[in-house]
Amino acid sequence: MATIRQQIIDMLQEGIFDARELSQALGIREKEVYEHMPHIEKTVVSQGKTVEIIPSHCTVCGFTFKDRKRPSRPSRCPKCKRERIESPKFTIR
After folding, report:
1. Fewer CB within 10 Å, N or C, the chain?
2. pLDDT at 45 over 90
3. Rounded to 5 degrees, what are φ and ψ at 86?
4. CB 10 within 8 A of CB 49
């Protein structure tokens, strides 16, 4: 049986997913997915691939968190101060 990280890698090679979709498919907490992402990124870089992160964005004003380094979802929009933030999505290319 594959490890959780390997299962996440396998899913990301097949499509684009956010942390909630990955957590529901694998039966783990959403927070755990975010904890695994730095390790997954190192693994796939050593294989000559990259983890592509489609950044979070505010659904109210459209602000995009393109300079954010952490893979987790931000809590509030710095522009409009609302909390309607779309989660980042991940894939492997």
Report:
1. N
2. yes
3. -80, 135
4. no
CB 17 within 8 A of CB 33: no
Domains of the chain by range and CATH? Answer: 4-92 (1.10.10)
Q: What are phi and psi for residue 60, nearest 5 degrees?
A: -90, -55
Query: What's the pLDDT at 11?
Result: 97
Nearest to 50 by CA among 16, 9, 8, 92: 92
Mean pLDDT for 27-46 is 95
Q: Give how far Cα 29 sits from Cα of 33, 34, 48, 82, 90, Å.
A: 7, 9, 28, 25, 16
Structure tokens at 33: 């997915």
Average the pLDDT over 50-57 and give the result: 95
Q: Which DSSP symbol is given to 71?
A: S
Helix axes 30-46, 19-26, angle to 10 degrees: 100
